Amino acid sequence: MKFLQKISKLFSKYTSIIVILVAIFTFIVPSSMSWVNFKLFTDPVGNNFTNQSIVLGLIMFSMGLTLTTKDFKNLAKKPLHIVYGVTAQYIVMPLIAYLLVKLFNLPVGIALGLILVGCCPGGVSSNIMAYLCGGDVAFSVGMTTISTLLSPIMTSFMVSFLANGAEVSIKALPMFVSIIETVIIPILFGFLLNALWGKTRIFKEIQLIMPGVAVMGLSCVVGGVIASQGSKFFTLGLTIFSLVVAHNIIGYILGYLIGHFTGMNISKKRTISIEVGMQNAGLATNLATTSTQFAAAPDSAVVAAIACVWHSISGALIAGVFSIIDNKKISSKKLAEK
Predict the structure, then answer these.
(1) Contact indicator for 118, 93 with CB cutoff of 8 Å
(2) Fewer beta carbons within 10 angstroms: which end of the chain, N or C?
(3) Tens of pLDDT along 142-161?
(4) CA torsion 207→209→210→212, rounded to 10°?
């Protein structure tokens, strides 16, 4: 168990390197991660349930295992911070996506993909990044959890609202069911297990392994995305990649500014920056590739896939930058004391 915990800590420390290496290897050898996209069955509303759905559910389950009633009590002490964060997640990124779509007059498929990414909740990978950069992990988990719980309604509504008039008809039910299957149920199951056995020693030992499991899951999602869509990454052109990057970076900046102007401390500023800018693009990819509503716009899955890979890399990089800043401050303080 101790060995697995060390591996988990190592994976958490080098998340960006692991994700980048998996991405490069999968791009060279797509078949190595093709298993992630294997279709298992089709649900009653027409969504394809794949191994990727299971991996995504496992990541959400790992997050659920860390949640306790105490977490919610601590968050309740400053409820407005959560309100600010979740509101920013469902306003900033969707509107940035919409403005980019209109500004560059993007084709329907690409526009839909960018809007879908913007309207998804924060991902569990952002919790890992918050931990790595000295952010407020409880705040991060709280934002991710609440935005995810709201996602069946908010993601469905925002995509339908912002994509209104597009040539692709968006229905809320398939997305609602897909999010329930891959996000809500795993989180609730993990939370329930934690509520029942969270105080036992063995359970606490298992919890320490979960960050590594989440990193592995994240890497598999990225690998699966590249295995299925990697060959198309360059077909949409550098402009589309630039828009995905711009969408992401603007989210980081505005998220940090929102934290600043609402009086949050440095830890929470970093957290809200990552939570706003780093959306659950893996969920967006899953929705775009499995929901029948996106079948007529295949480019939407490519955009979501590019965002999935980029968000994972940029999130790890920005966490590294924050960590470097902290290390320099610590070194400067030690020198001053001498």
Answers:
(1) yes
(2) C
(3) 788 788 778 888 888 888 88
(4) 160
Q: Which of 57, 7, 2 is nearest to 286 (CA)?
A: 57
DSSP three-state, residue 113: helix
Residue whose structure tokens are 């925002």: 158
Is there a contact between 158 and 119 (Cβ–Cβ < 8 Å)? yes
- Kindly tell me the number of DSSP H helices and DSSP E strands found in the chain: 16, 2
Amino acid at 167: E
- What number is the average pLDDT over the span 7-22? 82
Contact present, 304 and 117 (Cβ < 8 Å): yes
CA distances, 221 to each of 58, 90, 218, 240 (Å): 11, 23, 5, 21
Distance CA 288, CA 274 (A): 23
For residues 79 and 223, give the distance between their C-alpha atoms in angstroms, rounded to a whole number. 37
Tokens read off for 192: 């329930």
Model pLDDT for residues 50-68, shown as the tens digit of each residue? 898 888 888 878 878 877 7
